[in-house]
Amino acid sequence: MTLTRNPFAALLLVGVPALILGAPAQAAKLCKLQISGNDQIQYDKKQLKIAADCTSVELTLTHAGKLPAASMGHDWVLVKADDLTAVANDGLAAGIANNYVKKDDPRVIAHTKVVGGGESASVTFATSLLKKGQSYKYECTFPGHNGLMNGDFIIE
Ligand code: CO
């Protein structure tokens, strides 16, 4: 088979799928977010915002402190606002072996692992998991932290 014999055939192969699909699908847009936690049980941001056209989000959590994960661990867990306390309570029971997140918890939209001072962790998730008009929050599920370490996750 000679691929170069009929250049027009090659053009057709490229062009036909585009015709079938019609209008182009929403372009993939990865949006990156940064947040850090410290040794005073604080995130550096009380809210995180993404644009409405983000198709996925990459969140990176950095622990800017010095204390180890065992005593001052931080994670980042995204939930519906109403699920904040219950998810943290179930995470407490799940323990550090599960990064203080209940295994396969359907209320958890995305979460990082627990990090200690100087460490960081990332999580990437699809915004198709989020509904417009729903209130979302993020929190640290390390024991005793969620009351101080939480914030609003906003889709603009
Ligand atoms: Co924490």
Fold topology:
Layout: H1 7-21, E1 30-37, E2 47-50, E3 56-63, H2 69-72, E4 77-80, H3 84-94, E5 110-111, E6 120-126, E7 136-139, E8 150-155
Parallel strand pairs: 1-3, 2-8
Antiparallel strand pairs: 3-6, 4-5, 4-7, 7-8
The structure holds cobalt (II) ion.
Q: Can you tag this structure with a few keywords?
A:
single chain; 156 residues; alpha/beta; Immunoglobulin-like; five-stranded mixed sheet; 19% helix; globular; binds cobalt (II) ion
- How far do the termini sit from each other? 53 Å
Which segments are poorly predicted (pLDDT under 50) over 5 or more consecutive residues?
Answer: none
Main sheet: which strands, in order across? 2-8-7-4-5
In the CATH hierarchy, what is the class?
A: Mainly Beta
| Number of individual domains | 1
How many individual helices?
3
Number of strands: 8
Which structural category do the helix and sheet elements fall into? alpha/beta
Q: Strand-residue fraction?
A: 25-35%
Instruction: Sum up the overall morphology in one term.
Output: globular
Give the SSE order as H and E letters: HEEEHEHEEEE
| Gyration radius over CA | 21 Å
In CATH, the topology is named Immunoglobulin-like
Mean pLDDT across all amino acids: 90
CATH architecture heading: Sandwich
Helix content: 10-25%
CATH superfamily: Cupredoxins -  blue copper proteins
Concise account of the structure shown:
This protein is 19% helix and 28% strand. The protein has 156 residues and is α/β, with parallel strands linked by helices.
What does this structure look like?
The protein is of the alpha/beta class. The chain has one domain: Immunoglobulin-like (Sandwich), CATH 2.60.40.420. The protein contains three helices and eight strands. A five-stranded mixed sheet has the order 2-8-7-4-5, with helices on one face. It starts with 6 loop residues before the first helix and ends with a strand. Bound molecules: cobalt (II) ion.
